[in-house]
């Protein structure tokens, strides 16, 4: 009872701070985002204009393996399990004006069969970037991995509205509310594994990064089982960056989407 009351009070307190920050900086948000990265999720430099901002972003329009997409019409296949050997890491969060990123120290490994990737960090998107059977959940968490040869693998965890996420609350109390703000807590340790479901059954396809320059050749693993965050927790992460942070769904272009069945 006491813990529930404490979490509820914490949610209200941090949501109030986030909404206050969003209101104060609302008019400056788009301009400041442009100044830093020259692209955003809306307006004159939104997703439909990314390819015009720089020649390096040509794939954002011309690419044939772009992400995110709607997950449907899948093909069953026997696939390797996702083995996440993640270590705990000190909190290192940054508000980069487009999203909130959590950076991970070296040494945390994702293994898929013979492929080995290192976890670089994770970020949050509202709503979820991928849709499943035409439905987008209110939030997703994307865990970014890179192999020694430079290839990338991203695990996306779908987030539905429900109970307060206890593991998430540790981060929520330290979220950087101001643009360019960094929050580091050397003595506060988190494990990315705690933000994933126990069941890591997944959909698999080849796609791209979902932000400019939209590089292709990314191995996407969309977990089937969602986790829960409270309505207040989801509102907080959305309020910090001032709106939606999901790229519109892209054309599938006849790509195969595998419905992985573990070996």
Description:
- The strands form two sheets. Strands 2, 3, 4, 5, 6, 7, 9, 10, 11, 12, 13, 14 and 15 form a 13-stranded mixed beta sheet that branches.
- The chain is an alpha+beta fold and 263 residues long.
- The protein starts with a helix and ends with a strand.
- The chain has one domain: Alpha carbonic anhydrase (Carbonic Anhydrase II).
- The chain contains five helices and 15 strands.
- The N terminus is likely disordered.
Would you identify the CATH architecture?
Answer: Roll
Q: What CATH first level would be assigned?
A: Alpha Beta
Which class do the helix and strand fractions yield?
alpha+beta
What proportion of the residues form beta strands (DSSP E)? 25-35%
Give the number of DSSP strands: 15
For the record, what is the CATH homologous superfamily label?
Alpha carbonic anhydrase
What string gives the helices and strands in order?
Answer: HHHEEEEEEEEEEHEEEEHE
Largest sheet at a glance? 13 strands, mixed
List keywords for this structure.
263 residues, alpha+beta, Carbonic Anhydrase II, 13-stranded mixed sheet, two-stranded parallel sheet, 5 helices, 15 strands, 34% strand, globular
List the SSEs and their pairings.
Blueprint: H1 2-37, H2 50-53, H3 59-62, E1 70-71, E2 75-79, E3 82-85, E4 89-95, E5 100-103, E6 109-112, E7 115-125, E8 131-132, E9 139-146, E10 152-161, H4 166-172, E11 182-190, E12 202-208, E13 216-223, E14 227-229, H5 231-241, E15 258-262
Parallel strand pairs: 1-8, 2-15, 10-13, 10-14
Antiparallel strand pairs: 3-6, 4-5, 4-11, 5-7, 6-7, 7-9, 9-10, 12-13, 12-15
Helix pairs in contact: 1-5
